[in-house]
Structure formats: structure tokens, C-alpha cells
Amino acid sequence: MAQRRDDLHYNWFWLLTWTTYGSWLPGDDRGSTGIIHDQSGEQLARNEIGDPLIEPSNALRDFSQEAMKGDEVRLHREQARVLLTQFHCTSGVRRWRLLAVAIMANHIHLVVNVHGDPEPEDILRDFKSYGSGALNLQWGRRDSDTWWTESGSKRKLDSDNSVIGAIQYVIDQKYPLVIWTRECGMIVPAADSMPGDA
After folding, report:
1. In a domain, 29, yes or no
2. Helix (H) or strand (E) holding 103
3. Which of 11, 102, 159, 183 ranks highest by number of CB atoms within 10 Å?
4. Based on the domain organization, do 54 and 122 belong to the same domain?
């Protein structure tokens, strides 16, 4: 699983999470993260560890829904397989190590080990961007011109226990289209275990 910390003094582990376009709008009843604007128009980022959630708001959710440029994205199993392949390719090109991936219909979790200390937004951007390219190639561009919401969660894992915990969190996801771990390979749940909403 995770290598010894002293062998990886120049490496960092990250748990990355992002949602599909339109699947978790600002103002959602579950609370939400992302980038919003206050009443004066100033941009507020609410997507880092410790940031307060954007509180539920019917007005904000309705405004966000009206501003959408296309339909909500719901991934299916074949798209999940294409994404998993692309995540491996992206990791290979960047010389990163994937440790675990869970792809659900409306969000993705990924645990990755990276060399050096690149900006976490750059790591997230690469996975999302190359993933979009692979999906566009097979299913065409979306009306919204994106498969994903803006940005996502980037959690640095600073101990072996946090890496192990993050991998277990990925494995334990409800209703995955596909799960992959470095130790076990690809795990595809039975089709009848997947409800309409994940």
C-alpha cells in the first residue's frame, strides 16, 4: 500500500474529489463547496479543508440551475472505464502513482502520490482535463462544454494512516460505477447494486 514515509520525503499524497457538471449546485440542501460571489460581487472560494460549506439556499440553487449551459452530467459504466484508463495514462505521463479511484455517476474520488510538491489545483486540473478529452473523443463535447463542476476538493494526506484511511474511504463508496486500487485492481459492482442516484 503506502510506502514508508521516510522513503517518500519528496513525495506527497492527495485525496482529490470532484463532481460532474450540474450534479451538486451551490445552495444544494446537502451544503456545497465551490466558488461563489458575495452580494458585492467578490469571489469567495469554499473548497479547501476547513472552509465553511456554502449553506443551503433555494434562491442560490435556482439561480445556479438557471445559469447552467447544458444538462446535468450523469456518468455511466462505460464512461467510468474510459476515465479510469485515462487517469492511469495521465499518472504515467506525469510520473505519479495512483493508489485508489472510485467513479460514481455524479462524482469521483482519487488517491494519488506525486513527485515534488506541485500545486494541488494543477494536479486536479490535469486529471479533469485529460478525462474530459477522453470522454469528448468517444461521446462528443457537452452543450455546457464541460463534464465537471469548477475546481474540487484537494486534501493533502500527511501520514501513512491518512493515506490508508483515504484509500479505505474510496473503497467504501456507495454505488460506484467502478473502483480501482493499486493492490486489488479494478472492482466493478453488480449492475443491480446501482440505484438511479448515487
Report:
1. no
2. strand 97-103
3. 102
4. no
